[in-house]
């Protein structure tokens, strides 16, 4: 009599007592479609199109004090909130389409891991806890601004092409 035993490790199924720390578990824990109060409106979290969120320190407009804020970058705006994942009554709302520059400002304001978002009306100062967080935020903000600019250019090009097509269809 011969016995054969096959042992294999499940890729995506049953695991031992140790929980996976992989991306699959992160995706499983995400909440989809929860209602979020934003100002006077109730929004679905999926409607916010969250690109990045996390804690940053932001300088207040009038008193110039540094306050810890939960910052949410969406495809259209940057929102800041007083509390962790409580998307009600943002303390700040910055339109991505209003961005002029996003840059590190450690040398200018003498605060480690600081950066700013410049719009035509105001400069918003932030700082992160680590260099990696600062770079990740600058990258995400920059990418969102570029996507917004490219999106506008593509829409403009499509409108212009449509107008040209109509012009040429007449002849």
Strand content range: 25-35%
| Oligomeric state of shown chains | single chain
Judged by helices, strands and strand pairing, the structural class is alpha+beta
Q: Which series of helices and strands comes N to C?
A: HEEHEEEEEHEEH
The side-by-side strand order for the widest beta sheet comes to 6-5-4-3-9-8-7
The profile of the biggest β sheet is:
7 strands, antiparallel
Tell me the helix content: 25-40%
Task: Summarize model confidence as the mean pLDDT.
Answer: 75
Shape: globular
Q: Low-confidence runs (pLDDT<50, min 5 residues)?
A: 4-35, 155-171
By DSSP (H or I, 4+ residues per run), the number of helices equals 4
How far is it from the N-terminal to the C-terminal residue, by CA? 88 Å
Q: Which value, in Å, is the CA radius of gyration? A: 23 Å
Q: Give the total of beta strands.
A: 9
Describe what you observe in this structure.
Helices cover 32% and strands 31% of the residues. The chain is α+β, with helices and mostly antiparallel strands and 171 residues long. The strands form two sheets. The chain has a seven-stranded antiparallel β-sheet. Strands 1-2 form a two-stranded antiparallel ribbon. The longest helix is centred in the last third of the chain and has 39 residues, at 131-169. The chain is globular, with a radius of gyration of 23 Å.
């Amino acid at each position: 009599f011969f016995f054969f035993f096959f042992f294999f490790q499940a890729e995506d199924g049953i695991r031992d007592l140790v929980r996976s720390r992989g991306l699959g578990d992160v995706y499983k824990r995400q909440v989809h479609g929860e209602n979020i109060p934003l100002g006077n409106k109730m929004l679905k979290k999926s409607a916010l199109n969250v690109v990045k969120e996390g804690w940053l320190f932001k300088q207040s407009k009038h008193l110039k004090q540094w306050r810890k804020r939960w910052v949410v970058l969406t495809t259209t705006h940057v929102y800041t909130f007083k509390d962790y994942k409580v998307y009600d009554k943002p303390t700040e709302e910055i339109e991505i389409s209003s961005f002029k520059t996003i840059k590190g400002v450690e040398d200018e304001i003498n605060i480690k891991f600081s950066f700013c978002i410049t719009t035509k009306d105001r400069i918003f100062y932030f700082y992160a806890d680590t260099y990696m967080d600062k770079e990740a935020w600058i990258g995400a903000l920059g990418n969102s601004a570029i996507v917004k600019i490219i999106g506008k250019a593509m829409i403009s090009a499509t409108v212009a092409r449509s107008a040209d097509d109509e012009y040429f269809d007449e002849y």
